[in-house]
Structure formats: C-alpha cells, structure tokens
Amino acid sequence: MTTLEPGSVPRLRRGVRLSYDQTRETHVLLFPEGVLVPNPTAAAVLSLCDGVEDVAGIASALRERYTGVREEEILDVLSRLGERRIVEWT
User: Which of 23, 27, 40, 53 has the largest count of CB atoms under 10 Å?
Assistant: First the structure.
C-alpha cells in the first residue's frame, strides 16, 4: 500500500466518474462495481482529485470554501476511497 502524505496526488481511477444527480440533488459516484452516494465532504474532496493537485493543494482549495479543513481528514477520506478502488495515486 502507498504511504499517503500531503504531497500525494490523487485521481479518480479509470472508469470512475463523479456527477451530480439533479433529481436527488446530490452527487453520485459511478464506477464499474456500482454506485456510491458520497457525503458532501467526500464529494468536495473528490471533485478536486484531478491527478495534478496534491493533498496539500486540495486542502488549501477547500479552506477557501470551508473552515476547519485538515489534511489528515482528507487523507483519511482518500485512504478509505482508495481501499474501495475509487481513487488511485499518481
């Protein structure tokens, strides 16, 4: 397993797509094994997982919108999503 740190760069795995469901007014994560409805925090993190921005940059971007954003929490969310094969690291 990859050691995750603020310099790690996440991206959605091939075949995974985050979209917004207008009917349910929530984000949905579509992937080959199924569908996941992420909570708003996870959706905000996933929307910034572009394979270019590192975790520190994602945290910085989220701090512009929300208070109390910590890199450790972002790493925790991404680690759990990595275990589900939704996120990978470049």
Answer: 27
Q: What is the pTM of this model?
A: 0.89
Angle, alpha carbons 43-73-18 (nearest 5°): 15
Task: Give φ, ψ of 41 to 5 degrees.
Answer: -65, -50
The pair of three-digit structure tokens given for residue 61, joined into one six-digit string: 């971007």
Q: What integer best gives the mean pLDDT of the chain? A: 93
Q: Are 15 and 22 in contact (CB under 8 A)?
A: no
Measured N-to-C along each axis, helices 55-63 and 71-83 cross at an angle, to the nearest 10 degrees, of 120
Question: Cα–Cα distance between 43 and 29 in angstroms, integer?
Answer: 8
